[in-house]
Amino acid sequence: MAEPVGKSLEFRGVAMAFDGQTVVQPTDLAAAAGEFLTLLGPSGSGKSTLLNIAAGYLDPTAGTVRIGDRDVTTVAPRHRNIGMVFQNYALFPHLNVRDNVGYGPKVRGVARAERDSRIAEALEVTQMGPFANRPIQALSGGQRQRVALARAIAARPDVILMDEPLGALDRQLRKQMQLEIRRLHESTGRTTIYVTHDQEEALVMSDRIAVLQDGRIAQIGTPEALYNRPDSRFISEFLGESNVIEGIVREVSGGSAVLEADTLGTRVTAGAAEGLVVGAPAACVVRPEHVRLVAGLGRVRGRVRERIFLGEITAYRLVLPGGGEFWSRQMTPAEGITRDSEAGIEWAEEKARIVPL
Amino acid sequence: MQARRTPARVALYMLVSLFLAFMVIPILAVVPTAFSDASYLRLPPDSYSTRWFTAFFEDAQWRTSLVTSLRIAVLATLLSVCMGTLAALGLARLPPRLRAGLKAVFIAPMILPVIVTGVSLYFVALRVGLQGTELALVLGHSLLGIPFVVINVEIALRAVDPIWRHAAAGLGASDATVFRTVVFPNILPGIMGGAVFSFITSFDEVIVSIFLAGYGSKTLPVKMWEAIRLEFTPVIAVGAVLLIGLTVLLFGLDRLVRLRAGGQGDG
Fold first, then answer.
1. Which residues of A touch B264 (CB under 8 A)?
2. Do A78 and B174 touch (CB under 8 A)?
3. Of the candidates B3, B60, B8, the residue with the CA atom closest to the CA atom of residue B223
4. According to DSSP H, which parts of B213-234 are helical?
5. A345 interface with B at CB cutoff 8 Å
């Protein structure tokens, strides 16, 4: 990884309201210099608003924004030294690829020779060199987004801000671009704030993910931490898939908890998230890939209703006697378990987690 | 795929041809007249020559009127382009209701009967002592041209994505630079279109011109209007042919500019 050349970005108590309607609760959030931080959330969670506040296109109702050690809260976008990449590319239609990429250096008065070398470099890392003289209209969506990336990079910004940049691309291209953007980030070392509603994008690219829900940060951490140790049911279902067993907390001690689950007719023990209260409702979440199907009793028995072959994995949908549903995903199909057969459902205690509702 | 030649399709083609003929033929009828050899107006002429073109350009009065027309049209176009473009830019920033109201003001010269504008301008010009001057004609014509510029530029502005301004500002451009490097190039075809309409409006304008023209500021259409009452020779048709020619030329240029810009603009 390259030495970070970007600067840190920090929100301190930033809040936003439109017409009295709060869209961002007071939020503290910081991306370290060179970090790839993703703001992940459903639409209306406030992630784009935060990004636009960082860029200076929106003035926050409260709080301050800092880039490096400079307070930029009242600084105009053009003096923030940011590079913004938009979902619909926002390329200038009257300029060709080269002039789009060179726009930043040009308006900042960078000398011709230096400008040309920056353009060449940006086109090189985005693999758009051969297209330098093409008009924008002659490019595909993926190529346009690469030009938009090149334009942001050529401006040598302290922070790159990306607003759902892959949203308009098809799935195949999106997967390819995810890896490319990550490589680009690793080679340039520039701080990147990435906004998306796509959990896969967030998992693939980020150093850290901040999951937003209703204008506040629900949880922040590395992709592994969020996936393996969700703090709430929302996170466990928003990032990846989860089996959710609802129940009442009976015991909390030393990082683990006991949940009485009516639907299972049994108690389950698992790692405990913060904020559990004995006697209050909570949920035990188990990833489908951690659910094994066994011939014996297991923790609970279920009936296989569907067996779905997905190539490298096989998925099973089971129905529990109490009426609930359970999913299991296996790399190697369980022996002798077919549709309509009964199976025991089993998981390792340390793979499950008990979270507040 | 080749379209089938069904009776219905043939009937449609004939109808369209008739319609086009109805639109164009009465106007083009003047062209052969200009090439007449006779000294009276007759359609079609008995024999052809270019003697009336020679007569037109040898006559100082006709020549002067053509030059006056061109000069006034250029100046009026410059004025209406500047004012119309500024008006359209301003309108785009207003709240919808105020915008609709103010737009009506800018469009008014196109909607009002020109004779009303002509009479009003005549009184105003008399009052301020401009009647009979070229300046009065330039101002009057620019008034007629402004609506075309406002409408054309307004449409062009709608295609300017506000996000381009954000992108440019984020890359370090000041408001003035954003306008110069992003907004202006993208509304230029609209400005050009408005300019063409405005030029042609001035160049063939007769009603306002009759009210405002003096001896020294006689435009080509005014001269033609006088000649048709006094001389009634094919030299009038020459003036008409020049008007048609310049109009076609300008619209052709406009199409060309838009086609080239359009090749970049969509997508």
1. 93-94, 135-137
2. yes
3. B60
4. 220-230
5. no
Quick check: A144 contacting B, CB < 8 Å?
A: no
Residue range(s) in chain A whose domain bears CATH number 2.40.50:
233-356
Q: Mapped to the 3 state alphabet, what secondary structure does B109-135 carry? A: HHHCCHHHHHHHHHHHHHHHCCCCCHH
Round to whole Å and give the CA distance between A85 and A152. 7
> Cβ B170–A76 below 8 Å, yes or no?
no
Cα→Cα distances B54→A89, A108, B246, Å: 59, 59, 18
Overall residue count recorded for chain A in this entry: 357
Distance from CA of A250 to the nearest CA of B (A): 54
Which residue range(s) make up the domain with B76? 63-265
Residue B142: inside a domain: yes
Of the pLDDT bands very low, low, confident and very high (cuts 50, 70, 90), residue A319 is: confident
CATH code at position B171: 1.10.3720.10
Cβ atoms of A129 and A176 closer than 8 Å: no
Question: Which of B169, B172, B265 has the CB atom closest to A93's CB atom?
Answer: B265
Question: What is the predicted pLDDT for the residue at B266?
Answer: 39
> How does pLDDT run across B82-137, given as a tens digit for each residue?
999 999 999 998 999 999 999 999 999 999 999 999 999 999 999 998 888 889 99
Q: Identify from B166, B171, B180, B182 which residue to disrupt to test chain A contact, counting A C-beta atoms within 10 A and taking the largest count.
A: B171
Identify whether B27 is part of a domain.
no
A264-314: pLDDT as tens digits: 778 888 888 888 888 888 989 999 998 888 887 778 888 888 888 888 888
pLDDT in tens, B226-239: 888 887 788 888 99
Tokens standing for residue B51 = 């003697």
| A233-356: CATH number | 2.40.50
Domain presence at residue B225? yes
What pTM did the predictor assign?
0.80
Test mutation, A67, A78, A91, chain B, max B CBs within 10 A: A78
What domain count does chain B have? 1
A104 contact residues in B (CB cutoff 8 A)? 171-172
Residue A132 reports pLDDT greater than 80: yes
Give the residue, A36 or A4, on which the prediction is more confident: A36
Instruction: Name the residue among A93, A107, A108 with its Cβ closest to that of B264.
Output: A93
Please indicate whether, in this complex, the C-beta atoms of A107 and B263 are within 8 angstroms of each other.
no
**CA B237/CA B15 separation, integer angstroms:** 30
User: Per residue in B42-93, pLDDT tens?
Assistant: 777 888 888 889 988 998 888 999 999 999 999 999 999 999 999 999 999 8
Query: Does residue B34 form part of some domain?
Result: no
Please name the residue of chain A whose CA is at the shortest distance from the CA of residue B265.
A93
Q: A60 is written with which tokens?
A: 């926050």
Residues with Cβ within 8 Å of A172's Cβ and at least 6 positions away in sequence, in order, are none
CATH 3.40.50.300 maps onto chain A at 9-228
Name the CATH topology of A9-228: Rossmann fold (3.40.50)
